[in-house]
Specification:
The chain is mainly α. It has ten helices and two strands, in the order H-H-E-E-H-H-H-H-H-H-H-H. The chain has helices at residues 10-36, 47-107, 129-152, 158-171, 184-193, 201-206, 230-248, 255-267, 271-282, 317-322; strands at residues 109-117, 120-127.
């Protein structure tokens, strides 16, 4: 594939070599034939006619090859020019989509965030990449609460537990489209956290009444969780998915070139974005990121920069993705699914 778009490919080099070989034979053949032949060339007429008759076939064939090579080289040059035009159009669209991706990040927000200044309570909207940290915290809280509930019911399974928890983060508690596949007491438990008159979240988790998160200590966050982020995250993920699909679908790009463009996209994503993308996929909401048709997370490394400590301890990234067969061989020895830990 690396040589596919070069002007001088293997066919060109072979044709040039054959043409040169025939020309050498043409000039050498009169000497070889007259030196080793039993024919007496003094009786065959003019020597020039003899030499011409010997050399012309070789020169003629070499001329035909050179002429074909000229047309072939022009064809290759036209193909390269057409491909370059396609790449220019592609890059223009790609970088426009990359710009929109960054704008979508700015639209993600968490509110209200309150702080006191001169005895006045002020609301501060947390937006952009800073908001993603709070959304991840919501996922952690909902997951660990649900884990405790399902363990008590002897039906704990990490992936389904995440899906149920993610449903509250995505849709919000009061959304009518909330996935009904969750324990009823999980909804009741999360609703209590939304009551600002009760104990703070951290105090509740540490209380003897609940004592649910012995191994997980959420930080104290002064905002009402589980309001739902489907409007902003939905737009973000749809556009991100279409951007990756747009790159992968271009047949005139090699696999390595597609990876290079997606590295540019991934470089604009924070580690928190990649962690959220993993949760979005594993929860089932973003199942198309990695399925029988698409391998955006494995073949194209869209969550390459996620470290184990960023993910809930129940999920081993290497173990999860080792079960998925890749369609492409690694580009080199350093081309791992995740960056070196």
């Amino acid at each position: 594939m690396k040589n596919k778009f070069r002007t001088f490919d293997k066919l060109s080099l072979w044709l040039i070599g054959i043409a040169i070989f025939l020309i050498i034979i043409a000039f050498a053949s009169p000497y070889l034939i007259t030196k080793y032949s039993l024919i007496d060339f003094t009786e065959t007429g003019q020597i020039g006619d003899t030499l011409g008759g010997i050399m012309n076939p070789f020169i003629g064939i070499a001329s035909i090859i050179v002429m074909f090579l000229a047309f072939y080289m022009q064809y290759k040059a036209n193909e390269i020019q057409k491909r370059q035009f396609k790449i220019n159009q592609f890059e223009s669209q790609f970088f426009e989509m990359l710009k929109t991706h960054k704008e979508n990040i700015a639209e993600i927000s968490v509110e209200p965030f309150h702080y006191w200044e001169n005895d006045i309570k002020t609301t501060q909207i947390i937006s952009g990449r800073r908001a993603l940290d709070y959304i991840i915290e919501e996922i952690n809280i909902a997951y660990h609460i649900n884990k405790a509930i399902t363990q008590n019911e002897n039906r704990f399974e990490s992936a389904s537990c995440l899906g149920e928890a993610y449903s509250f983060v995505w849709n919000g508690i009061e959304n009518k489209r909330l996935d009904k596949k969750y324990p009823e007491n999980l909804l009741e438990f999360l609703i209590e956290y939304r009551n600002p008159k009760k104990l703070t979240l951290v105090e509740k988790l540490a209380s003897e009444e609940y004592g649910i998160l012995a191994s997980y200590k959420p930080r104290k966050v002064d905002f009402i969780p589980f309001d739902g982020h489907s409007s902003s995250l939905g737009l973000y993920y749809r556009h991100l998915f279409q951007t990756v699909k747009y790159v992968v679908s271009k047949d005139f790009l090699t696999y390595e070139e597609k990876r290079n463009y997606l590295r540019i996209l991934r470089a604009s994503m924070s580690n928190e974005e990649q962690a959220l993308l993993f949760y979005n996929w594993l929860s089932g909401y973003g199942a198309k990121w990695e399925d029988k048709d698409n391998h955006f997370l494995t073949d194209f490394r869209m969550i390459h920069n996620v470290k184990p400590e960023m993910i809930i301890e129940d999920f081993d990234l290497e173990s999860i993705f080792s079960k998925i067969k890749s369609d492409h061989e690694p580009l080199n020895d350093k081309d791992t699914l995740f960056e070196a830990m």
